[in-house]
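Readers of this paper often ask what the protein records in our data store actually look like. Nothing more is needed to write down the fold, since each code stands for a local backbone conformation. Below, we set out a record of this kind in full and without editing:
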Amino acid sequence: MTVALKKGVIMPERIYIFDTTLRDGEQSPGYTMNTQEKIRVAKQLEALGVDIIEAGFPIASEGDFEAVRQIASTIKNSEVAGLARANNEDIDRAWEAIKVAAKPRIHTFISTSDIHLKYQFRKTRDEILKIAVAAVKRAKSYTDNVEFSAMDATRSDWDYLCKVFAEVIDAGAVIINVPDTVGYAVPEEFGRLIKYITEHVPNISQAIISVHCHNDLGLAVANSIAAIQNGARQIECTINGIGERAGNAALEEIAMILKTRKDIFDATTNIITEKIYPTSRLITSITGVPVQPNKAIVGANAFAHESGIHQDGLLKSKLTYEIMTPESVGIPKSSLILGKHSGRHAFKDRIESLGYSLTEKELNSAFKRFKALADVKKNVYDEDIEMIIMDELYKVPEKYKLIYLHVSCGNFTVPTATVKLEIDGNIHQDVDVGDGPVDATYKVIKRLVKTNSKLLKFSVNSITKDMDAQGEVFVKLEEKGKIAIGKGADTDIIVASAKAYINALNRLEYIKHTKE
């Protein structure tokens, strides 16, 4: 797994990282993003060192097309790929979206498994082969950078799969992708398939072998690693492992396996691992879907040690129970560094060390909010700062503002909420009761703003661990097909809930008056 250079120098094999967070990840339930959010994610992926960013599926909708087009015009260092089914309309539309990119790629696909051919496409193997070749030739007429995917490859006949790959390479494909579309394969089997392809596709040296593994059996990362061991040089993955059903191979896990186990894998990626955690947090903040605490690399417990035996070992040597450092993935060694006496310079330095870049206006606004929080909270953690940053980066015009909230509740008290809002510059106030304090608060807000939106999701997380920790609340609203995610944070969870609801209402109002 090494490449020999001049004078006997041996260099690790380069593994290309193809990130599909904005395509496969974004199309899974709960992870929808608007164009501006997608652009911010794309910029972060570029900063992370991702080689190829799959920006979306341009034919899917006008919104998806516009998002891909804007990402293509923004990103300069990473390749930008547009997905297209194996037909002229999809391919033409994909090219129209990505042609402005500094490094465009068309990624076209069709199924090769007999299961899909019989029940989904209702075509013969020969018909599918002709469609695949024609699609690659069509894409090749636009760009030399063409990737072909054989959907459901792991349930396909291996010899037929190799025949398809050989012909699409002859037609101009320079990357051939082997997707485990339904997460069916196991590592030993998948590794053998990749090796079989390297040995039975006569022109395989003219293309890079890529893999795209799903996690239905929890084996997406393991299968991807097995593929690398057997000749794959591009891995398709997502931040936090998000994606269809059980998700995709997690980018952060792939990158850290290769970095941590250099004794086994003489392979390297361009990923700047210190930017992994900020990227993970960005996805969480935008989608409102938290990472499970025990998630490898980026979970809240990934570097937490509660066992006395483990703590004893760590105090003597970090090597006893940590195979990598928190700093290596962008988690600061010490979260508790800022308080009410901290200055603007220290605050700015902390933001930059967390991997964020703010304009002067955003920085000034964020610093004011930080000082206000530090006055009411004993300890200000990085997670608190990140929540402030996210609020600044994703501001929308505030049609509705929370002025006053008072709630009374208890086991012998009917939950009652009094809310005062500023709506388009005018003050409105009302009171209502509910099943609980949040329900009562939301009833008042809903009546004051006269919204017909439906609450689809409500989730609460503790940002930090102290008794005075901020509560982080995410809500998702839907009205006439428009969906908005709102988030709010406060040391009072009811206030955080009100902020999240109002934030979502403001976003919904913003979305109604934009093309998206």
